[in-house]
Amino acid sequence: MRYAAIDIGSNAVRLMIADVIEQDQTGKIGYKKTTLIRVPLRLGDNAFLDQYISDRKAEELLKTMQAFRNLMDVYHVTDYLACGTSSLREAKNGAAIVKNIKKEANINIEIVAGSKEASIIYANHIAESLDKNKTYLYIDVGGGSTELTVFAKDEIVASRSFDLGTIRMLDNKDREEVWEELKEWIKEHIKTLKPITGIGTGGNINKLFRLSKEKEAIMSYTTLKNMYQFLNSYSLKDRIKVLQLNQDRADVIIPASEIYLTVMKWAGIKEMHVPQVGMVDGLINLLIEKHHRVS
Q1: Is 58:87 a contact under the CB 8 Å cutoff?
Q2: Taking the complete model, does pTM exceed 0.85, yes or no?
Q3: Which letter does DSSP use for residue 140 in this model?
């Protein structure tokens, strides 16, 4: 079986195609990535500033979806899931764009609420492979929103999506009251659950982890802070030219670092697991749960 996942984010649009595999003798179902494509459309600049996605961006998104449709056909994909997040949620013409993509590219896109976005990320079941006696805080930072999920004793204790993301911060659309809501939510939901271990997902934390050259999939608060200070010591131009970051990563990685560091500080998190998965991985896992018996 071969599945595909499409994540229409506020910074980039991703397509992942994966083959289903049985990982071991227990029959546990897993997957192997065969293709991962990332297109930096940055829909959030339109959506958060104007609450409207421009005709040019809408056309670029359509062409991207048509290309993804062709790739899924060529790869003989069995089933797929496609989701739009903050930018399509907030754009007044988001629903119309989704309808046109269905007509012109034959791709069904679901505009998901923030709560469902968090549940898709959680579908990666990362905490199941960790210490079940510990309490974990999933932190997923995107272009338009940040999803937090508290996980303790094999159960979700609380989950919430906040309108706080890297593109919003770059566009000065992050509101002080949202930061306060984030702080109070963390304080309320972890006060009896400390100590907390972090689990960081999203493209920026994955990149920060690779840049840190840590050998284990864990970043301490100190390491992350040092990485942030190192990157912030360079101008945007030099982060692209000297550090060779992609242009669409070189700017967002700074506010992403600030969000992760702030959440870790408020939650008292000293270290964070970085499993290097994201929304597309969660969608693939949902497809596996849909088509296979998952124990």
Answers
A1: no
A2: yes
A3: E
